[in-house]
Amino acid sequence: MTEHVKERLVDLLIDDLKIWQRPDEFCFSLDTVILTYFATVHSKRKYIDLGTGTAAIPLLLTSRGAGTVTAVEINPVMADLARRNVKMNEREHRITVVEGDYRDRTLLAAEAFDGVIVNPPYFSVGSGRVATGLGRAMARHETVTALDEVLESAYRLVKFHGHVWLIYRAERLAELLVGMERYRLIPKRLRMIHSLVGRPAKLVVVEGRKGAAAGMEVEPPLYVYETSGVYSEEVMSWYGGKDWHTVSCANTHR
Q1: What CATH number is attached to the domain comprising 22?
Q2: What value does the mean pLDDT take over residues 141-148?
Q3: Between the CA atoms of 80, 244, 217 and 68, what dihedral angle is there, to the nearest 10 degrees?
Q4: Within a domain: 254
Q5: What is the CA radius of gyration of the chain?
Q6: Which residues belong to any copy of the Methyltransferase small domain (predicted)?
Q7: Residues forming beta bridges with residue 208, ordered by sequence position
């Protein structure tokens, strides 16, 4: 039995994109789409996705108009999936998958990218629901990469005045903002993500800019659901009114 038997082909419901996923590895979730639509893209600029997984973010970024995207993945199983997903969607001319550790200073050229996008591990070791399997554990918990290492890598790779976009647990927002200031990725935009109106925010997306002046815009909150089980108009607009529930692997949300 080959490893590919475990894979599942899913429709992203955006721009006719499809990807292979493995239920035994970490599957992308709505967090991926929220982060991608928070980022600003331009056809002449170069972007990098740190910890790309299945390459869902680079595929969505190019669909939104990003010029070229480098997708970095340390997990060889996921790196193979990413390469095949890029080829299946015929984006090889715009997306390059690099297998390796983005913390390695010899892997990638410094200050080579206009924008860095990253969905870092949400939980410190010992907190959050324990993930089964090494791949899921790496994606959810700081077992391999800590927040400081993510921010240091982002600072090193992005150009002066370039942008960095992150999604993180709202309960760790203070830690994220302090870390961004420490690595001179000045927070410029912030948006809280709520499941429903009246519920506490669970996630936050933040845009930082290398070497920028102080001053941050707090955008109106994003409400994922209109009512329980019914997505908000904004979220549904990303999918052209299609039902996103068909995309994700079961029980893999962070």
Answers
A1: 3.40.50.150
A2: 68
A3: 30
A4: no
A5: 17
A6: 39-124
A7: 164, 187
